[in-house]
Amino acid sequence: MQRYAPLLIIPLVLLLAGCDSTGAGGDGTTAPLPDPGPFLHGEGVHRGSPAIIGWATGLGPGGYDPGVGAEAYTNPEQALGPASGISTDVLVLGDGGQVTLAFAAPIVNAPGYADFAVYENGISNPSAGTVFAELAWVAVASRESATDQEFARFPATTTRTEPVGPFEQIDPDQYRGFAGVHPAGTGTAFDLQELAEHDLVKDGTVDLSAIRYIRIIDVIGNGSQRDDSDPPRKIYDPYPTYNPNITGNTAGFDLDGVAVLGNP
After folding, report:
1. ∠ CA 200-107-221, rounded to 5°
2. Rounded to the nearest 5°, which phi and psi values hold at 97?
3. What distance in Å separates the CA atoms of residue 216 and residue 214, rounded to the nearest whole number?
4. pTM given for the model
5. In a designed cystine with 200, which of 26, 116, 157, 205 is the match (CB 3.0 to 4.6 A)?
6. Do the Cβ atoms of 175 and 187 come closer than 8 Å?
């Protein structure tokens, strides 16, 4: 995400600070308590939801592998523990970069409900129903020290057919199965049951009742990558967002945290 326009960013951060509240609202009133869930695949989960029972605690196989444009905010510790909802308190993946996170206990599939949520630092425009969102694929593995070939990736599709400019917002309803389609402080929910027909699940390589690792992989939003539609479609999100001539400028998915959800 570009961060070099302070006159634009500061009001947006203040706006987010007022919206992302678990207690008092920006006007001094009491804000509604976050939705306790349970949640469905793709729904938004506030970082303060009582449905959250844990957060990522460490790095998994492959660790942090940054891509182009990960020039700042590159401390993997920023992706561990509770999401803050603060735009600069993140781990930048860079274009095509990735990180694999581990958890204190395996994540268990609760069929019908989402099992975890992924948090980015998107900026929403509620009146337009759009969000400045940088997208990522999500994959999971259950084997200790899993190889790249032992991660099952969630299917993800888009109906958008036009490129997205570097400052342009997207309609989140045009994307399914990607992380990052919600604003800062709200995570995108993932239901492990969505992977029930994945080849790695059916052959026993990935055990949906004992997920050890979650891998977040940045989507390069220039149309060079394809989704899981039939036939596959080009994927577009804000691009380019990286300018090497500007100090502190970054690109790619900005990970704020991954929460484990408790379900009935």
Report:
1. 65
2. -75, 170
3. 7
4. 0.89
5. 205
6. no
